[in-house]
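Appendix B. Chain record.
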Amino acid sequence: MSGGTIRDIVVVGAGAAGALTAMHLLRGAAAEGDSGCRVRLIGPGATGRGLAFGTNAAHHLLNVPASGMSALRDQPDHFLRWLAGRAGPHDFVPRGLYGRYLADTLEAAAALDGAPRLLRLFDQVVGLGHRPDDPGAPVTLRLRSGQSIDADAVVLALGNFPADQRWAPPALRHSPLFVADPWAPGAFEALPDDSDLLLVGTGLTMVDVALTVQRPGRVVHAVSRHGLVPQPHATAPAAGRPVLPVPPDLDAKSGLDPLRRAVLGHLAAARRVHGDWRPGFDSLRPLTSALWQQLPRADQARFFADDLRLWEVHRHRIPPVSDRALRDAVDGGRVAIGSGSVVGAEAEAGALRVELDGGRTLRVGAVVNCTGSQGDLTRIDDPLVSGLLADGLGCPAPVGGGFDTAPDGRLLPGSPRPPAPLWTLGSLRRGNLLESTAIPEIRCQAEDLARTVRLPG
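Structure tokens predicted for this chain:
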């Protein structure tokens, strides 16, 4: 920074990724005595909540123990200290509580001596522009309210988009008994009290929804192509057990098949040493993105087609208490989980008759879309994303969803032009990093981005 120039930085999206980015911008500037920047955080809704942490249901728990959820990389006990004895390091606390923690942590950063001013705008960015002939020109952001603002650097912290609906036949998509987005406000208010339900998707969203809507006298059917359900975390921590080293020659340079064999061998070693595959999986976490980037694109595409679901149910696990509750509901006949795909649907006297592949049919009072966030940017109904792609300011990652980015998270343009001062993080980098959707990764990306975008140029 020179000459006292104010550098305007805008963070688009006020959920977890946006709050973490703004917080690290403020903390970094305060620590370095950098008063030459101004931070705007733009997004509707409560700060720090977003899709993941906007719920207030007590049974919607973090999928990571409290000890792994600090917002600060250099203070791993920061969240535990904020909890102030309300939970221990191995507890899984309600997600809504974590949203409050993020908001409080951002507020504390804004109050630090020497921190830049934080401007919080409860609005939505619907488009932006940048002159391709002048890389140093500001980015102009257009807001839903009609306001326009300029920024020297923009971080897109857009979080998760609503689930894809392409799997649903037209008769189902257009039915009032189809819940397209289970996280939309009031999504379950119109569900019939006395009817069975069908949840399509058996991942993390299904677990939350099933535990919310299950009750005596109702069967909640849940189906997906593979019928795989997230595995639970271990009921006891692995403290005191020997650390399982990752094989020093583990790499992906020879392609997917040898890598798959090496990973399976490593997990088998974890079972021998620990009696559990989980420490083996967790020891791979710091290496996952580097291994992913070594794979040829054809192998990355093959992984998404053949291996992704099996990987995800072991990598993204659920709390033991949630697993027990789901198993109790299954054993009690209130939840039924299996494989299947929806091939047809028709209205039938205030209900839906849904046909699954294999000839099975279900009569249900509603169908809930639990297939998870849409990652294909070309299919997302969002004016900001559509405009970025149409104007060539960004382009989709070649495989896996999200934007194609440079190693520092800067958007790579979709046309022959210099990159604009646009960066992103979190789920919007999944195609490039694979491991990019959990808080432990996002907090590191946010801190690194904050340092990058505060620098001129």
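Further analysis of this model is presented in Appendix C.
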